[in-house]
Structures are given as structure tokens and as C-alpha cells.
């Protein structure tokens, strides 16, 4: 397995941590969570989840800047991820207000802050607690298609 | 931090492409008008800080 090949560049870093630019996405067998592991800052590891798993009606509107920064071309597979806060003894929450958007074709990503106040920074992610095992693999393999403004 | 006094209707220009105008000042509240290139993101600073804090609080330790 080559880590370099899986490297995803976030040219602007993530919000509040601009020097966190290079990441790799690690699968966690048997879990709907994946780990976004920063290659620039040791120990900077963010659990992420498919946001549609948390909110099936999730409808993020991405701005034109996303296309520019991620160099999106027609047909590029886009991946959406929500950063998740997981603490023992507490219900997990997912940040649907500022999702991570990744252009899988170009291995470029960014955190996009939505204008839409319908989506919360701390959306309860109860679906992650009672996760039926058979659904996990399917959800992990599913690529989410983000919508961009025309 | 550069601090300037401005009156409603006045503004400042940053670089060649960003214009910030005081639209209205009413007691403790000020309304700003901002003209900037579309590639620049503009957020209320409390939202930006809340997201930065949420990012930091999500960090998990190495297994």
C-alpha cells in the first residue's frame, strides 16, 4: 500500500488549521467512520463520516470556489465527508455546516462553510451508534456526489 | 491592528479589489457592505472560530 498515492492535498488547510494540508484517508474495518490523518501535523487525526448517513436529506450547496480550488472537471468523482466528534459516554455529532469536499480525481480537498443555517456544526449522529454491520461496507464504498452551483 | 475612524457612507479599500463600506451605524451595531472578488470567502468571525474550535475538538488520539 502506497501512502503517497493516497495523499490528498488541502491547499488551504482546514478551518483554523491552515498548515494541515496533506492528509490520507484511512478505512476502519467494521466502522462507518474513517480517519483523516494529517501528514503535516503528527497526531492530527479527524474521524469523518458520510454525511448522508447522518442526514439522508443533506443538501449542501457548494460555491464556485470549490470548483476552482479542487480543479473540478466534468465527471470528476466528488466525495463529501463530515468531521465527527466521538467521545465515550456521549452521543456522537457530525459537522454538517462545514463539510469536507474532496475531488477524488485530483486528490484535492477543502473544508467548505455552508451559508445555509439549516445544517448544524453539531448534528446528532445517532445513526453511528446503532450501526447495523451489513450496511457498513456498502456505505463505505458509496461515493457521495456533491452538487455545485452552476 | 490598524484602526481607522469612518462615518456611514465612508469606507476603506484593501488592495485593489476589496472595498468595505460603513452602510449604517446605529448605537452598538454597525452594518458593513463588502465588495470583494468571488474567490474570497467572507464569514462572520464567530462562525469561523466556532468551526475552527469544532475541528480542534474532533481530533482523536493515535490508537
Helix content of chain A: 10-25%
What structural class do the secondary elements of chain A suggest? alpha+beta
Biggest sheet statistics of chain A: 9 strands, antiparallel
Rg measurement of chain B, Å? 17 Å
Low-confidence stretches of chain B: none
SSE sequence of chain A, one letter per element: EEEEHEHEEEEEHE
Strand order in the sheet with the most strands of chain B: 1-2-3
Q: Would you list the SSEs of chain B in sequence order as H and E?
A: EEEH
Mean pLDDT value of chain B: 92
**Gross morphology of chain A:** globular
Major sheet size, sense and barrel closure of chain B: 3 strands, antiparallel
Radius of gyration of chain A (Å): 15 Å
Instruction: Tell me the overall shape of chain B.
Output: elongated
Distance N to C terminus of chain A? 38 Å
Number of strands of chain B: 3
Description:
The complex is a heterodimer of chains A (150) and B (63). Chain A has 150 residues and is an alpha+beta fold. Chain A has 3 helices and 11 strands. Chain A has helices at 51-54, 64-69, 133-141; strands spanning 8-9, 22-26, 34-38, 45-49, 61-62, 78-85, 93-94, 100-103, 108-111, 123-124, 147-148. In chain A, the strands form 2 sheets. In chain A, strands 1, 2, 3, 4, 6, 7, 8, 9 and 10 form a 9-stranded antiparallel β-sheet that branches. In chain A, strands 5-11 form a two-stranded parallel ribbon. The model of chain A is unreliable at 130-145 (pLDDT under 50). By secondary structure, chain B is of the alpha+beta class. Chain B is built from 1 helix and 3 strands, in the order βββα. Chain B has one helix at 45-57, and strands at 11-14, 18-26, 29-35. A 3-stranded antiparallel β-sheet of chain B has the order 1-2-3, with no helix packed on it. Chain B is elongated. The model of chain B has no long low-confidence stretch (mean pLDDT 92).
Amino acid at each position: 500500500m502506497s501512502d503517497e498515492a493516497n495523499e490528498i492535498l488541502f491547499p488551504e488547510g482546514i478551518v483554523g488549521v491552515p498548515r494541515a494540508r496533506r492528509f490520507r484517508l484511512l478505512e476502519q474495518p467494521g466502522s462507518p467512520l474513517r480517519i483523516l490523518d494529517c501528514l503535516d501535523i503528527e497526531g492530527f487525526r479527524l474521524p469523518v463520516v458520510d454525511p448522508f448517513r447522518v442526514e439522508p436529506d443533506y443538501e449542501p450547496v457548494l460555491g464556485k470556489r470549490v470548483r476552482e480550488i479542487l480543479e473540478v472537471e466534468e465527471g470528476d468523482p466528488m466525495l463529501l465527508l463530515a468531521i465527527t466528534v466521538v467521545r465515550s459516554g456521549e452521543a456522537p455529532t457530525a459537522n454538517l455546516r462545514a463539510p469536507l469536499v474532496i475531488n477524488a480525481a485530483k486528490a484535492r480537498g477543502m473544508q467548505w462553510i455552508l451559508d445555509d443555517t439549516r445544517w448544524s456544526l453539531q448534528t446528532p449522529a445517532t445513526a453511528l451508534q446503532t450501526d447495523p454491520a451489513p450496511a457498513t461496507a456498502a456505505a463505505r464504498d458509496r461515493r457521495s456526489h456533491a452538487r455545485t452551483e452552476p | 491592528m490598524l484602526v481607522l475612524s469612518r462615518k456611514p457612507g465612508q469606507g476603506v479599500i484593501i488592495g485593489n479589489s476589496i472595498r468595505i463600506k460603513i452602510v449604517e451605524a446605529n448605537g452598538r451595531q454597525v452594518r458593513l457592505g463588502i465588495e470583494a472578488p468571488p474567490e474570497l470567502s467572507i464569514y462572520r468571525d464567530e462562525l469561523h472560530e466556532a468551526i475552527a474550535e469544532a475541528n480542534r475538538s474532533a481530533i482523536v488520539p493515535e490508537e
